[in-house]
Write a structure and sequence with these properties.
By secondary structure, the chain is an alpha/beta fold. The protein is built from 13 helices and ten strands. It is globular, with a radius of gyration of 18 Å. It is an enzyme of class 4 (lyase).
């Protein structure tokens, strides 16, 4: 049974033109200490090295560009986020001379909040989790005639796919572990894997304390699960996106779940073995590779270090093993 592509080569080429007008490519390295630890060659895609410290900025740039290309210049942009999507939208809005309002849940990362405000965003706190913040943002959209930028959209996939083109040009691993928040990162990896006709297996990674996508994958239906992760806020999704689910059902070889403790271990390992700072969601892929290492001995494994935006106080707890 044939499927329409997630992304065409022309769409990917256009996304590259937009992204590289503002960003460098991020590196990917095979770290010897990780190889020793995992028993496999481990390539890390370092999206934590991008200007806002996370992969999301690629999608935000492409989304804003397409919006303006369509002749649409709204009164402002609006989104709901736990942080990295918000930084992406805020930077893209500033480059387009658009005001931006960002809704975050109460108790959100103070340092991510500060980073979004430094990019010119008006920050609104509402609700106890991402889903409540998103619902409030949707209401604000109509009240203030703002353009709502979703967390999952084809233009976001196109932008993030530029990262996976960089990666797959360098290495074609046996397996690639990709964290799933709302799904743009995973779907982008699948899109490029398919365009290049590679046999790399794709394994999605969720938090064991926010397992909606894993449960939905297993049950082949949308399942809502409360998100209670204390460490991987970028994975704190309780309600899967329907479009993302369709693609994940089609493209994922598996979805595995990692606990906050496994994520904390992976954050420490990344710092010890590579001297890179990872936020919880950013370390989730390596946590999964370590959890699943018996399956991939002597193979080539890829992991996404999708973001490094962790609050200093929390990272101190992780490094001191207080978490």
């Amino acid at each position: 049974m044939s499927h329409s592509p997630i992304l065409t080569s022309d769409q990917l080429a256009h996304a590259g033109q937009v992204v590289y007008a503002h960003l460098p490519a991020s590196p990917q390295y095979a770290w010897p200490l990780l190889k020793k630890r995992v028993g496999a060659t481990v390539w890390v895609k370092h999206e934590n090295h991008l200007p806002v410290g996370a992969f999301k900025i690629r999608g935000g740039l492409v989304y804003a560009n397409r919006l303006l290309q369509a002749g649409t210049k709204p009164a402002g942009l609006l989104c709901a986020t736990r942080g990295n999507h918000g930084q992406s939208v805020a930077l893209a809005a500033s480059l387009c001379n658009l005001p931006v309002t960002i809704v975050v849940p109460h108790g959100n990362s103070a340092e991510k909040n500060a980073a979004m405000q430094a990019l010119g965003a008006e920050l609104v706190e509402h609700g106890d989790d991402f889903q409540q913040a998103k619902e409030y943002a949707t209401a604000l959209q109509h009240q203030q005639s703002l353009h709502f930028v979703p967390s999952f959209h084809p233009d976001l996939i196109a932008g993030v796919a530029t990262a996976w083109l960089e990666f797959f040009k360098t290495v074609q691993p046996d397996v690639l572990f990709v964290p799933i928040g709302q799904g743009s990162g995973f779907c982008a990896a699948a899109a490029v894997r398919n365009l290049l006709n590679l046999k790399t297996r794709l394994i999605g990674v969720v938090s064991a304390h926010a397992s909606a996508y894993q449960q939905s994958f297993i049950e082949k239906r949308a399942v809502v699960v409360p998100a209670t992760t204390q460490l991987a806020d970028g994975l704190a999704c309780s309600t899967p996106d329907p479009q993302a689910l369709e693609l994940i059902w089609r493209e994922a070889d598996d979805i595995v779940a990692v606990t906050d403790q496994e994520v904390a271990d992976a954050m420490r390992i990344l710092f010890t073995d590579t001297h890179n700072v990872a936020e919880g969601a950013g370390a989730a892929a390596l946590a999964a590779a370590i959890q699943q290492k018996d399956r991939w001995q002597n193979k080539t494994v890829g992991v996404s270090l999708s973001g490094g935006n962790v609050d200093a106080a929390l990272f101190t707890q992780v490094l001191s093993r207080a978490f």
